[in-house]
């Protein structure tokens, strides 16, 4: 599998429609790749909280309208990063989700994923968006992609669930801040090592609402070795993955077979 991670620079002065058109053009330039990945919340900015409600859209809104023909023209599976999804929700009104799209080489929407772990510690995304609840995988380009988003990277139990669901390539779009860039690299490698899977983590360049972004998109193999890493600026990181390496790693070092599930917590002290 040839994967291209498009590390988009977020400039809040760039109109959203112009950014959609620019990103669609970048996707079209990736013809020859099998999978293209975009960052988290690239239309609005992951920290542009005040814009979430105004820029929210349905799944079949302008972001999908821009990305679907671009995926078709490039002939790629496209993980569209994520956008702010607006969903009508019961008598109390609508809800917003941090939602990812996966589009086929025919330009068809084949999967969505709503981010499960919302960042903010009772502020920001954690209060403005609802939480997803479904572990999500999708067959694409000869692999099974396990879908996660940004802050999800800190929760290993989600990735165990993705592996149990058959994932061999873990895809993580993000709007990760520069001040915690060391964690970004460390956690991407940890998720690869513990799950003996490839990790494709696509970050953002520039700044989101004044928050400098880490960049440094990264591709990690099932042994935890970094195959390629971007710098801090906008760029396209392209890497070739040998998908048979997942099975070889799990066979040579079968740690996943030694998992002990359902352990009971200790009794409280007397």
Automatic annotation (TrEMBL):
It comes from the Bacteria. Keywords: Hydrolase. Gene3D superfamilies: Carbon-nitrogen hydrolase. GO terms for molecular function: hydrolase activity. The keyword Transit peptide does not apply. InterPro entries: C-N_Hydrolase, C-N_Hydrolase_sf, UPF0012_CS. Belongs to the carbon-nitrogen hydrolase superfamily. NIT1/NIT2 family. Residues 1-243 form the CN hydrolase domain. This is Carbon-nitrogen family hydrolase. CDD domains: nitrilase_5 (cd07583).
